[in-house]
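Q: Here's a chain of 101 amino acids. Please give me its 3D structure as tokens.
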Amino acid sequence: MDRLSFSLLATLLFAFDLVISLMIWLLVANAILSWLVAFDVINLRNRIVSQIYRMLDALTRPILRPIQRMVPPLGNVDISPLIALLVLMVVRFFVHQLFRY
């Protein structure tokens, strides 16, 4: 593999890892914020909190909705963020293993 293609591959792998890491952090933030709202620690009447909540929901909805359609909630607990986190981590691991050599 020549130097240019290796550099391009390294850049693409870095960008992929950055996007996956960002999605993981967004899912964690969305889960924590939804817990805080559910337990009435913060409320959505605050405009800033409401905007953050809607933004996080809009960014994580494309990942969570397909999982929510396949896996029903356990009682009142939605486990789709946990499943999404596991899937993203497994995908990141396999991509890193694929391009390790």
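Q: Can you summarize the key feature?
A: The chain has a mean pLDDT of 92.
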